[in-house]
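Deliverable D5.2: sample structural annotation.
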Amino acid sequence: MDSRRKRIIFRSQHRGMVETDWFLGRFAEHFISDMTDAQLDLFEALLEVGDNDVFSWVSGREPVPSEYQNDVMDLLIDFNHRR
């Protein structure tokens, strides 16, 4: 695995809020090896967003803003709703 993917997994698992560490980390471990560079860019942008916002979007408490509505977010939401 290349260093970018390793770094993304680490960042996904060490965000600060246990819930987001858990669902982002598991998502990254499961999908990171198959992501394209464009999808990695989208996921890294999501990692810049605060935990409370990401948690609200994935849990369905708040709608996902248009700038974060993409195939990676769809996959993340679907993955976590199946769990």
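Annotation notes: The chain has a mean pLDDT of 95. Helices lie at 3-13, 18-31, 37-47, 51-59, 71-81.
The annotation will be released with the project's public dataset once the embargo ends.
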